[in-house]
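Input record (Table S2, row 81):
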Amino acid sequence: MNCDGVVRRVSNYIDGDLEVSVLEEIELHLKSCRECTILVQQTRLTVTLYRDSDLVDFPKEVQLRLHETVRREIRRQKRAT
Ligand SMILES: [Zn+2]
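Output record (zinc ion complex):
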């Protein structure tokens, strides 16, 4: 599992809508990838907000944009330290 695989499955992962073997692969990746861990946290937050406002459809492009934002943020933090 690489970052792309996690990004593609992040909403299913949050829904628990994946095979156990895939879930395990994602969790393994999350242990070693800070970006994807943050992505999952951010997406979970966003999904919760979407659900609360009855907008259940979570567009793929939003996920991708979110991942880009997270990457930029991490790069910024790395430079700051
Ligand atoms: Zn990753």
